[in-house]
Amino acid sequence: MISDSYQRVIDYLRISITDRCNLRCVYCVPNKGIQLFEHDEVLTYEEIIRIIRVASTLGVKKIRITGGEPLLKKDLPFLISSINRINGIEDISLTTNGTLLKKNAHELKESGLKRLNISLDTFKTHRFRDITRTGNIVDVLDGIEKAERLGFYPIKINMVPIRGINDDEIEDFARITINSRRHIRFIEYMPFGKRELWSPDKYISTQEIMDRLKAIAELEPVKERKTGPARYYRFKDAEGVIGFISPITHHFCNHCNRLRLTSNGMFRPCLFSETEIDIKSALRKGCDDEEIKRLLKLSIEIKPKCHGLNHQRSIELFKPMSKIGG
Ligand code: SAM
């Protein structure tokens, strides 16, 4: 078990396996696109597996695969089944936009993946196209259904409500939980990066969302066994739960247990801090496991106490979310 300088136990590694995405969500990717990493700048599966193996000896138990869009990568089931075989790894999950899920869900299930987070900001066909600039919502809905049929549970649908863009669907998203076991989670729109779209008036706080939902029915708090950034509630007698992830108004820095690994091989102790530690160069110079351990420990040691974000101004990060790993 390893703790950072603020006595937080770090047992969760969030790994971006690619910076490429087949969607270009208006709030995530700038209109002019982003400069992608060259193929050989991106960590190989073998490198990722080696890092996880060493991280597991330091107490990392939980892995999330993200991107970019992780389902764009070939042989993802190979990576997942390899991670599943690493001693000490207890939980592995995937964050995806769901567009390629229908054709991949079966193999993912076979590889041992159990949990899926699907990012979906609207149920409206045209709006989906507007937000993603390119996607077809039918692909995502088909993917979710297929995953459910195959027994993935829980399926968490993550929505980022943005005023004037999709906030009129907040209640519709929440109502899904009444007759379905899907988890719906609302994530506060985070003010970072050079975004054409972001401005304080587009941001909607968790409190505002909760107030709107309480107008539909009572929200009962739900005790979750596992810790995580979301706080969960349920409409009375509903099958599914509603989660709120509030990085701005109810930040979870005090309980943050995560370290990130970017697709170009950098440990990133905090999403909102530019500080990164280069593990790829060490690996490619032939370092031993002790050196990987040292760099892991260093990354954990320098994890900042708190991100200091607020909803008044956007912070500039060199890397967009799709490059860091959302
Ligand atoms: N392609 C995968 C997906 O769509 O889930 C993984 C990468 S994507 C960058 C991960 C998540 O980041 C998505 O749920 C997206 O909504 C979220 N995201 C991107 N920019 C955000 C922002 N400014 N505020 C809140 N969430 C954001």
Largest sheet: 12 strands, mixed
Radius of gyration, whole Å: 19 Å
Structural class: alpha/beta
Domain module count: 1
Q: If classified by CATH, what would the architecture be?
A: Alpha-Beta Barrel
**SS element count, helices:** 10
Shape: globular
* Hetero groups: S-adenosylmethionine
Distance from N terminus to C terminus (CA atoms, Å) equals 25 Å
In order across it, which strands form the biggest sheet? 7-8-9-6-5-4-3-2-1-10-11-12
Strand content: 15-25%
CATH class call = Alpha Beta
Number of strands: 12
User: Unreliable runs, pLDDT <50, ≥5 residues?
Assistant: none
Mean pLDDT: 92
Named CATH topology: TIM Barrel
Helix content: 25-40%
Provide key terms for this protein.
326 residues, alpha/beta, TIM Barrel, 12-stranded mixed sheet, 10 helices, globular, binds S-adenosylmethionine
